[in-house]
Amino acid sequence: MDKRNAILESAVELFGAHGYNQTSMQQIAESVGISKGSLYSYFQSKEDLIISIYEHYQQLVFERAFVVGLDGNLPPMERFAKQFQVQFEGILEYKSYMKMHMRGESTKNSEKLAAMEHRMRGRLFSWLEQNLLDVYGKEIRPYKWDLMWMTQSIYASYMMLLISHDDTLNPSRLGAHLVRQITLLANDFLCGESSPQLNDDMMKSFSVSMDKEGAFISFEKREKAWESLYGKIKGIDDSRDYVNIANRISEECRESEPDKLILKGLFRLLKDKEELRIEAEELERQLLPE
Amino acid sequence: MDKRNAILESAVELFGAHGYNQTSMQQIAESVGISKGSLYSYFQSKEDLIISIYEHYQQLVFERAFVVGLDGNLPPMERFAKQFQVQFEGILEYKSYMKMHMRGESTKNSEKLAAMEHRMRGRLFSWLEQNLLDVYGKEIRPYKWDLMWMTQSIYASYMMLLISHDDTLNPSRLGAHLVRQITLLANDFLCGESSPQLNDDMMKSFSVSMDKEGAFISFEKREKAWESLYGKIKGIDDSRDYVNIANRISEECRESEPDKLILKGLFRLLKDKEELRIEAEELERQLLPE
DNA sequence: TTTTTAGTTGACTCACTAGTCATTTTACCT
DNA sequence: AGGTAAAATGACTAGTGAGTCAACTAAAAA
Q: Engineered SS bond to B134: which of A133, A190, B76, B238, CB 3.0-4.6 Å?
């Protein structure tokens, strides 16, 4: 089962460097050091392989920011910046995957992948919407599409820079910078000086109904587990301590090699609080299977 | 020689819709209504075909904005907005080409195309630099890369929207909107509230030395002709009238079917002014060959 | 009308790649 | 050691697509 991961890594490297169509199964097999036949005992087809790559990496990059967003103790704007920072850190860690993803060719080749991409975009947009409303208030609603569109395009462009200049750029500064720029644009809209260019109708392809069938089931299960843990914590008297523990867990999970013992200990602490036991156990099961 | 253009048009349509690698020479031949063998008597190879497409369309889209920029009578900011507007109009007119271009797959397949793309990017950036300096003054120099980067990413993202929603979006409004947003960002930098993230060193791959050998020779010849005409006009006493004539010529050229008689007449007017004769003749030769 | 020329054709070659499967190798158990 | 199940292999199939070329066609020239 470890070889499966080795294949995923080699493949993402090659796809990122040369593109999906320009990389043959033979090349992937050679770069892993196995035969082509073996590849097909781990993945049914080339399409299956790239879908597995997306399933594997997508959540690694995205979940981080989602979890940071659950910590209600940070002021909204800082939380927003922090989420971008964490996202940028994720991008640095999975550079090849991001390269592959940004080439975007692969999408055009398969119905299934296109649906997945569509879903991911919907996810990104609803996350953005949530944050923009939290940070700038309900008043920005008439301008939300403009802001969301600007945000994602600036975000994407910084992503590209980050990938080629990881040495000079710094995720934390970049996150703050991005939020600062969005704030300028938002204020301009709020002053009524600028009028929106985009509307619901034009953007309907970006709003995905989340209850559709699709991939990411496991991802969503984990998200749900985080969400209900933070939810329960909020309802507790001395929530402060428990938020810290939860935050510490999420930080540890973001490490490239999370320390399982530390996680176990932290979960132990959570489970001591009777009210949190069920949620903590559920999340622990998601994060530390076996 | 007309069949060559028919091929270019069919090919750009197919490349735009399905992508370069997903379109076979056979399909192109069928869509033009000729045999595959004939294709190869007009273009040496598939690569030659796509390079010819780039050579053909690139200048059509880009030259417009360049020429608008030469009219020194508009205030800098309005001129900037107008240039974007004209650029957006061009995008609408050559939608298939823009789609193809934005897919970007083709670039990865050929050294020559990659060099071309690199050159185009350099062109775009130096055009942006010129405009930003004109509009916001020398003071923005320390922030120029940040501003250029933001501008091009917002510009590119609007381009994408425009292609899929040409019915609702309007080039003129979009141009003004874009400049407004850039102005906000620029002012923030000028207030010293925000610090730059990008520097010369990181961006060196975007600054192209213009004296390199490459494509676009004909494009540049035409640019030069425009430039020296506007230059000469500026040195004349009653320049106003002649600027108007020159602007009228550039507008007419932007029509999908420029009226050759009108152009001839306008050029006649210019040539009446002895000081402009040589330049007007040169440009007329570039624009109305035969 | 016959000859020459230019343009057009589509069957063919060659290279490449996704995916298969009979055979071999390895690892494990008795 | 011998036997068996699981895993790995690479030659093979079938399909595709870029590019070629001998044969064909149409039109211009003689």
A: B76
Of A106, A108, A143, A204, which to mutate for an interface test with B (greatest number of B Cβ within 10 Å)? A108
Residue reference for tokens 């984990």: A222
8 A C-beta contact, residue B243 and residue B73: yes
Residue range A78-132, pLDDT digits in tens = 999 999 999 999 999 999 999 999 888 777 777 778 878 887 888 888 889 989 9
* Alpha carbons B168 and A221: distance in angstroms, whole number: 39
- Best CA proximity match to B87, nearest among B185, B167, B155: B155
Cβ atoms of A133 and B133 within 8 Å: the answer is no
Query: What residues in A contact B18, CB-CB < 8 Å?
Result: 108
- Determine the Cα–Cα distance for residues B45 and B23; give it in Å rounded to an integer: 14
DSSP state of B216: -
B34 touches strand C (CB under 7 A): yes
DSSP-derived secondary structure letter, B200? T
DSSP state of A238: T
pLDDT over 90 percentage in chain B = 47
Question: Across the A/B interface, how many CB contacts are shorter than 8 Å?
Answer: 79
pLDDT the model gives residue A213: 36
Q: Tell me, letter by letter, the H, E, C secondary structure of B13-52.
A: HHHHHHCCCCCCHHHHHHHHCCCHHHHHHHCCCHHHHHHH
Structure tokens that stand for B2 in this block? 């007309």
Inspect the interface and report whether the beta carbons of A181 and B157 lie closer than 8 Å: no
Q: Strand D-proximal residues, CB under 7 Å?
A: A 3, 34-38, 41; B 23-26, 36-37, 40, 45-47
Measure the CA–CA gap between A233 and A238, rounded to whole angstroms.
9
CA of B251 to C1' of D14 (A): 56
- φ, ψ dihedrals at A288, nearest 5°: -125, 75
Whole-model pTM? Answer: 0.82
Q: Is the pLDDT of residue B130 over 90?
A: no
pLDDT tens-digit profile of A232-260?
887 888 877 887 888 888 777 777 667 77
State whether residue A273 sits within 8 Å of chain B by CB. no
Where is average pLDDT lowest: A35-49, A169-183, B31-45, B94-108?
A: B94-108
Residue of B nearest to A176 (CA): B194
Q: How many angstroms away from the CA of A235 is the closest CA of chain B?
A: 39
A144-164 vs A111-136: helix crossing angle, rounded to 10: 110
What's the confidence (pLDDT) of residue A289? 66
B2's enclosing H/E stretch is helix B2-18
Q: Give yes or no for a contact between B119 and B216, defined as CB atoms under 8 angstroms apart.
A: yes
The rounded mean pLDDT for chain B is: 86
Q: What is the pLDDT of residues B33-79, one digit of tens each?
A: 999 999 999 999 999 999 999 988 987 888 788 888 778 788 999 99
